Amino acid sequence: MQPVGAVVPLRVDIAEKTFKSAQGVSITALQDLSFEVRQGEFACLLGPSGCGKTTTLRILLGLDKDFSGSFQLPEGGSNRIAAVFQEPTLLPWRTVEQNVRLALPKSLRTKNLDGLFDTLGLASMRSLYPAELSLGLARRAALARAFATEPAVLFLDEPFASLDERTAERLRHLLLTVWSARPTTALMVTHNLREALMLSDRIIVLAQRPAHVLGMFDVRLPRHYRNPQVMSDLLRSFHQKFPGVA
Amino acid sequence: MTAPDTGDRPPGAAADISSQSGLAAALTPVLTVAVSLLGLCLLWGFAANAWPSRAFPGPGQVGQVLLAEAANGDLFYHLGATLGRVAAAYVVAMVVGSVIGVLLGSHRSADRFFSPWLVLFLNIPALVVIVLAYIWFGLNEAAAIGAVAVNKIPNVVVTMREGARALDPSYAEMAAVYRFGPLERIRHVLLPQLQPYLAAASRSGIALIWKIVLVVELLGRSYGVGFQIYLYFQLFDVAAILAYTLAFVAVMLVIELLLVQPIERYATRWRRRPA
Ligand SMILES: Nc1ncnc2c1ncn2[C@@H]1O[C@H](COP(=O)(O)OP(=O)(O)OP(=O)(O)O)[C@@H](O)[C@H]1O
Ligand SMILES: [Mg+2]
């Protein structure tokens, strides 16, 4: 399937991002972080906990403007961005369906969401409130919200964290299903190497804080060939290329 | 919730029994309130019988005055006037107080600057505000309502400032990423988070406001419950004073039961999880 949208990639060039703590100590979270994600590509940012992955995404989402450097988001089609946050962040006082529809631009507000809800197994949950969902279902709803907006670029911040492994695995497959139906440029943060190898076209490996790129690992194999045998081969060659990385 | 199984009912009557117990469960609090109020009336009647005095009429006398005032229409005229002032002052105080409170709660430097003002206004006696309002703006309706609102606004500001400090930034960030419009942010992100604080400010607000409205009416208006009470005070007619007071308390109770509580139940429906 052809990627949707024009050809401007996601280009990141952050010179430095420093936090000032309340005591006046400054922490450099990012330094000389630069990478690109090609159009329609699914990339993973892989790095140790606390290295600055969420900070990077927050900058790209426009939530943190206090940094030096620049970045460019893909354009064309829609200029919309979508995000799946580390927490589901659904409005507790709106139903699942209202949560999804509120995120849509006016022109898409009344669009038919049956297919998306069906694929994600949320068809019977549309009128439930988030408090009535398990964490796994809430994360699915957050995925539904992100994909419903038909974004030009999609950011995901450890969307499967704190789920048991079986649920996480189910959700990874669901993510691949909805993503393949409309391959959007996507950047996903994770510290789970297996997850990155299973989902992505390319892995951007980050160093310890202050985060910068250690190197790239391309997974050229189509996803449906990535069976357990192939995955262990991929793992081995990843470890050869990046011996220090867990 | 279902009542425990009593054991000796015919099979097939389950639905019937559970719906009856549901009705009983719904009626019990109402019944408790009714019995409790009846008890208070009896106690009052007993006391009035024990110490008969013109200054301490029994419930029967007060009821007669109430019926008479209702029959000639005076009661509803004055109740309506007072209720209108309460409603107007409430709306003004809630809107102005909420806006100021949310602004102070989300801007720390503004908060630090205006905090002393707030303490000052919190401590100005209601009577002073009312007298000054009548002197500066004349004995008119706007001055009356404004004076009541000004008395209430600092309380609303303090409560809503707490609410704004408790706002969860992750919802605002989600709304920014998905480009919610300004009105949508207020309606779907801001107000639902402030709802408990709005409810708290409303509750303490209505109680305070109607008491101040009576003072305002007494000092500078020629109709309304406060004016009537002042009138009957000069006539030393305690039965009429009590009749008007009870009528207005009853109106406020009905508003609480039929308006405030249903609205609150609706606003918090998402908190209830089905069992
Ligand atoms: N608001 C802040 N103020 C001060 N320091 C911060 C702030 N936010 C993040 N940091 C620091 O920046 C560094 C990177 O944080 P970040 O949340 O980006 O890590 P992460 O890679 O997402 O980690 P994790 O995998 O645990 O989510 C951390 O050391 C953290 O202490
Ligand atoms: Mg993080």
UniProtKB/TrEMBL annotation, chain A:
One MF term in GO for this entry?
A: ATP binding
Q: Name one Pfam family in it.
A: ABC_tran
Would I find Nucleotide-binding among this entry's keywords? yes
Q: Which residues form the ABC transporter domain?
A: 10-233
Which regions span the lipid bilayer?
none
Query: What are the entry keywords?
Result: ATP-binding, Nucleotide-binding, Transport
Q: Which Gene3D superfamilies match?
A: P-loop containing nucleotide triphosphate hydrolases (3.40.50.300)
Q: Does the keyword Cytoplasm apply?
A: no
| Homology family | Belongs to the ABC transporter superfamily.
**Protein name in the entry:** ABC transporter ATP-binding protein
**Classification lineage:** Bacteria, Pseudomonadati, Pseudomonadota, Alphaproteobacteria, Hyphomicrobiales
From TrEMBL, chain B:
Which GO terms fall under biological process for this protein?
A: transmembrane transport
Task: From the record, give the transmembrane residue ranges.
Answer: 23-47, 87-105, 117-137, 231-255
Annotated Gene3D superfamilies: MetI-like (1.10.3720.10)
Is-annotated flag, keyword Transmembrane?
yes
Q: Which UniProt keywords apply?
A: Cell membrane, Membrane, Transmembrane, Transmembrane helix, Transport
List residues of the ABC transmembrane type-1 domain. 79-259
The membrane topology term of the UniProt record is:
Multi-pass membrane protein
GO cellular component annotations, sorted alphabetically? plasma membrane
Localisation: Cell membrane
> What Pfam family is a match for this entry?
BPD_transp_1
- Output the InterPro entries linked to this UniProt entry: MetI-like, MetI-like_sf
State the PANTHER family in the record.
ALIPHATIC SULFONATES TRANSPORT PERMEASE PROTEIN SSUC-RELATED, ALKANE SULFONATE ABC TRANSPORTER-RELATED, MEMBRANE SUBUNIT
User: What name has this protein been given in UniProt?
Assistant: ABC transporter permease
Per the UniProt entry, what species is this protein from, by scientific name?
Answer: Mesorhizobium temperatum
Organism classification: Bacteria, Pseudomonadati, Pseudomonadota, Alphaproteobacteria, Hyphomicrobiales
